[in-house]
Design brief:
By secondary structure, this protein is of the alpha+beta class. It contains 10 helices and 7 strands. A 7-stranded mixed sheet has the order 2-1-3-7-6-5-4, sandwiched between helices. The protein is rod-shaped, with a radius of gyration of 39 Å.
Amino acid sequence: MGKVIAAAAYCNGRKVADIRIDESSQWATRPDHFVWIGFEAPDENDLRLLQAQFGLHELAIEDALHAHQRPKIETYGETTFVALRTAFLAEGHIAFGETEIFVGRGYVISVRHGGSASYAPVRQRAEASPKRLAQGEDYVLYAIVDFIADNYLTVVEKLADEIEALEDHVLEPLEEGRIYRIYELRRELQRLRLAAAPAVEVCSRLEHADLPGIDKESQPYFRDVGDHVRRALEQIDMLREMLGFAFEAGMLMESSRQSLEASRQSAISRQLAGWAAILAVPTAVAGFYGMNFENMPELHWRYGYLAVLLGVATACSILFVRFRRAGWI
């Protein structure tokens, strides 16, 4: 069993009664009256009751029951059916949902599935403006669609603050948590774009097409909603580019730091190799004379020891100068 959020009858822009679903069609057929019903996650029995009350088309009922519809607008006889994806920011993540709206002469029915902000503020604002609410069913449709589009902007603006904070730390070493969050934000923004983009086409049809339950005087309002969606899409694209830049800049900085570290390690390795080569000369000479052969010609030479020392020193000095010039020492 779904939840009836609100069900009320209106006349000339003012609420006249809270109503039961099984009596809603009686109120809808009264002169200058219309009913506005809001459902959350209805089951099949709920929708069959609405179908019996307003003669809703079977295909529209199936779409509203199973949800997971691509944003679209359809006409079924005297009923306009609108499906839109909704977005709501919850604990730093975007919760996606769906809203189906039935509009006909005398009734507006909204059906919510999944993540969505409450539509109570929409009803409150509408009831606070009787002159505009007196325009009837098409104004209610506009108010709901405008609220959905504004929520796209709200989600984008809240994410923008976090993305700007991430960008401020772009020159700092990339941590695993920050890399994951950048990826997660890019993925969610892409999903938001896919959810919001078709709403532009829906608003365009609402603005130009001759649809049941929508007067021509109300059509220009939907142009404004379309502009809201386009602005949200532009901001989504900008934020995705910012995240891409932040990730690429972070990776470049990390690569630069690794290169510098590798360069330092290579310099140390070269220094060690250079000194090892220099020390190899006296080590080799000492090893050679440490063999203690008795018949070595230089052993009986008065200046042999001094000559060896000078030779070792000369060889070490030459190696030192060459390694120094090569930058190894």
